[in-house]
Amino acid sequence: xxxxxxxxxxxxxxxxxxxxxxxxxxxxxxxxxxxxxxxxxxxxxxxxxxxxxxxxxxxxxxxxxxxxxxxxxxxxxxxxxxxxxxxxxxxxxxxxxxxxxxxxxxxxxxxxxxxxxxxxxxxxxxxxxxxxxxxxxxxxxxxxxxxxxxxxxxxxxxxxxxxxxxxxxxxxxxxxxxxxxxxxxxxxxxxxxxxxxxxxxxxxxxxxxxxxxxxxxxxxxxxxxxxxxxxxxxxxxxxxxxxxxxxxxxxxxxxxxxxxxxxxxxxxxxxxxxxxxxxxxxxxxxxxxxxxxxxxxxxxxxxxxxxxxxxxxxxxxxxxxxxxxxxxxxxxxxxxxxxxxxxxxxxxxxxxxxxxxxxxxxxxxxxxxxxxxxxxxxxxxxxxxxxxxxxxxxxxxxxxxxxxxxxxxxxxxxxxxxxxxxxxxxxxxxxxxxxxxxxxxxxxxxxxxxxxxxxxxxxxxxxxxxxxxxxxxxxxxxxxxxxxxxxxxxxxxxxxxxxxxxxxxxxxxxxxxxxxxxxxxxxxxxxxxxxxxxxxxxxxxxxxxxxxxxxxxxxxxxxxxxxxxxxxxxxxxxxxxxxxxxxxxxxxxxxxxxxxxxxxxxxx
Length: 604
Description:
Helix content is about 70%, strand content about 5%. The protein is mainly alpha-helical. Among the domains are: about 10-105, Orthogonal Bundle (Arc Repressor Mutant, subunit A), CATH 1.10.10; about 110-250; about 470-604, no CATH class. The radius of gyration is 29 Å and the shape is globular. About 40% of the residues are buried.
């Protein structure tokens, strides 16, 4: 952390769970009430000079200036005896030089940040639980005024983020013990985080315990000196009021009730298959269940096995399976399930949707002509059946195929027509599809057109997230927006979006999304000066594409060329064909974090 002209004097500082300053590993710990506190302050300055008067007031704030100055003079003489010429002091200023500082919190903070960047939520959850004692301990906070480097504040901020992430994971896992642990960590640290309180209310509403949660929040707020009529508590009350009817109704249903209902229906699946088939295919059910696509597919398969092929409920189930496999970019399964549906009579809307999905599966494996024929067949069916909305959506998807083929003017015309027709619609499905259209239009502009136009369309798509469920779109949208921001010079925002996009992508478990979004991240790395790292990821991603038959389209080849890494083509790849997807993701996120660090000026 500090550089020395000669051999540095090793200084070991421990502030986590215990507090000590030690000179050399064999030395005796110095009292944090005496010389240890003074050495800590000088070490955290990272070689910078500090005025003696400022240092004296900081270390002995209750003393008269003359008394504090005298105590400092005596203490510095004692420090000089310990570190020799490493202490540089004159009548006005003091600094510590030629010292190698090992600060335990700096090391733990780096480890915790890596945990927070882990794309594997199971491993992340396990690691966060193991960090609980470190996160809980805040004895180091008394030394924050001595820290001019910001390291202790950074540790504090990372711990707060970790508690919020633990709360989110506990909620997604419906783990009551972990939920209470996250809440108690916040309380025991003496913090009050409104966003974490909202998560606590959300999770408690799902468990039917919202009144108890609100009581605990009020207690925590009073301990923190917050007025219940103030803005923070008023906003939390509004949040809670919105949850009660949506989450609980009058029945106060808890997670146990959900398990009971699910078990009752699924244990007698042969008696309820037809009703379940229709229920599981409702759009609001699909939106929620596609958050866990693997589990959703298992339920659909189990129900479908009890239905007569060609029956209305069976067609609903098969259509839902197409939708899930489509979201996972599992082209073979999409094509397979679509082909089971073609022999049976379907409504124009459904037939148009199935042909659109079938076309998309062909498009993904680069069967261009067949894909265009299928999407146009879907348009014909929708048009003949008078379903103008389905016709418009299939037409919009044809625009995406044309975009990938590099037929830019045709794609733009289709996107413009769709937006002219539906941009002002208040229908939720229309609003979602408008966001998809704008995202695809932005992609086209990034690669073939104008960066400002791309930013405008991407921001418009992103803006509806507060009232439209964009879960399926966000991984790709975040990743593309990261390149827009990077090429506009905003690397801070670009890296944030790229990292969040990669995390969401990994959770989706889609090879196609993984390939696309890793390559988008490479665009950010290149703008951030990490060309070698970008080349290793691009090389691995392209090899993965070959294995899955997701070879680059004209559009994707043009983007890859814009990243301009051909001069590194003779480099020995860091990742071979057996490399784990998770490891490449981790490498990409670590590299993006390095871009962030490179943008931060050194302290001191």
